[in-house]
Amino acid sequence: MYLKSLELSGFKSFAKKANLDFNAQVTAIVGPNGSGKSNVAEAFRFVLGEQSIKSMRGKRTEDLIFNGGESSARGNRASVKLAFDNSKRLLDIDFDEVAIERVIHRDSLSEYFINGSQVRLRDIVELLAGAHIGASGHHIISQGEADRILNANSRERREMIEDALGLKIFQYKREESERKLEKTRENMDKVESLRKEIAPHIKFLKKQVERVEKTIALREELKNIYRQYLKRESEYLALTEKALADESAGPKRDLERLEKELAAAKKALEASKHKDVKSSELISLEARLKSTRESRDDATRSIGRIEGEIASLEKMLARERTSADAETVTIEYSKVRSLIDRVNELLDDISSVPKIRELLKSFLESNKNSKSQNRAGDIEKELKILRDRKIDADKESREKETELAKLSSHYAALQKEIEKEKDSSRDAEKAMFRIMAEENEIRGRLSVIRVREEKLRLETEDFKRELGEGAALIGRDITLYESDQAASAPEERRVQEDRRREIEKIKVRLEDQGGASPDEVMKEYKETSERDEFLAREIADLERSAESLTNLIKELEEKLDTLFSEGIAKINSQFKDFFALMFGGGEAALSVIKEKKRKRGPSAEELAEMGIETGDEAEEGEEETELGVDIRVNLPRKKIKGLEMLSGGERALTSIALLFAISQVNPPPFIILDETDAALDEANSKKYGDMVENLSKHSQLIVITHNRETMSRAGVLYGVTMGREGYSKLLSIAFNDAVAVAK
Ligand code: ATP
Q: What was the pLDDT predicted at 619?
């Protein structure tokens, strides 16, 4: 026995606390009409968690609370407590006695308790479902509802049978799994849409990353080619510099030498400038020579002329004298005396002989015949003048001759000197021409070298610029070219130029790649793709759990189907017997039918609208089916096929047979039968009583009845009365009093 007791307090007509102990397998509740018996059955529904007020004959919750009677006030609270003996762990909870309780107030929702602890309705439902007790009340047959199972449609019927077969627990599980599945799908949709949201960003970032990677590769390429280029170039520059230095050393030395030589030559030429002074001296000397020569010639000429004149005068004089000599002349003594004195005077100096001669001669002349004397005297005077003049001219001539000789020798010496100097300046000039020619040639060579040096300088500048640019583009790494191995094979300069062109090309391509910061792009891409991967994993997880839920649901459905089919088969074998027993023959059976059902999920069309493709398994037009249960009856001696053709009694008998068959297959811990026997005649009441007894072997029975036969099968009887106070009372009664109480 599982049921221990039921306590009602304020529930419907039970204003005062009333208690029923279930100490027997069959408990009968008897009492007059309207005393509140059915309220007891409803109290069971209530405490088990029934949510339909209607099924407890109320419209609102407060209809379940005692509403007051003639002499008693209405209550504000209704509670029902059902106690189980749980020593056999009927309920999956670790207590030997379990009391579940439901309380309602006029103004609030229901409260549920298990052993005094408040719980959720769900906790109660689950706890009871595990014990094959449900709020659906398959084991509570309300008054007038015995044939509910006959009236129900095939689907409802199936549900009632499933419930009775204890399949509810699987259904709960299935529903829970479906809920979870739905939730999982919602989450999948959410995650999918998150992924879709970030997909374009990832695509964009991926392109960026590809560009960045390309840039990195280009940089690497650039670095390599740069290092090769720089290595080669530095070697080339060093070699070229050395070669140019070597090449220019000789010419530079030569040039230095020539400079010295040139200086010497210049000095020599400088010195020859005196030559001009000498030349002009020579010219003036020539002029002087000429004038001196002319003066001498003049002197010579006048000497000749004077000599001619003297000669002619001397002839004239001689003639005069001859004539004069022949004449006698008287001379004054004083004159002769003065002559002798004078001669004596002159004789003191022997060198004055000519003068003496002259003196004597002129004495003679002056004492000549006066006429001829006079003429001779005149001639002599003239002669004297001429002779003086000749003396002067001779002197002059001699002097000029001497001067001429002096000038000539001076001239000759000067000329010689000039000649000599002319020679040495010619040499210097020659040397200068040679030096200049040589210098020209060397300068020509040097200027070729300088052109090459200039080229080298430009190349060195280019090299430095490249180094700078390279370092800016690639980093200081580039300067490590120095540590690179020496470029082995010699190559043409053209190759290096090609390299440089390649460098320029790569630079342009790098510029085209744009300036997104590679680190940031990589980081963002990493983060975003990690998020995407996380979402993908999330989806995979969700898919897995959706799959396992689907599998679970499938398993549960298969299990439900199997258990259901098995259950139906078992019920049928019992139903057949009970039916035959009740009707004294005939046949009855349940049959499982497949019924079309609206699909639970969205249609293929709706799915297509959402952009979800449907596979072949969800072809349009295909309808899901569900199982229903049909009842077939075949009354003995009657040709009745449809349930609707049965009489009230026949309907009652058929449903009782079916209910009992169901209960037999999977006996619930207790069954409540509220006047299920109302329509039975005496003979059938007996059969009903037998079946009650039979059922009570597996389930505790609470029968509400007016039927004496039924009462007789009960171990405990309770009478429900309602007095003037207007509320129901319970009292334990003996069988013998029961019939009386029931009336
Ligand atoms: P019958 O034998 O005719 O089926 P019964 O014994 O099963 O009768 P119930 O239907 O259980 O009687 O009881 C109905 C009685 O309970 C009515 O008299 C009704 O007035 C009373 N009742 C129902 N709800 C309330 C309520 N909220 N407060 C007070 N009384 C109530």
A: 46
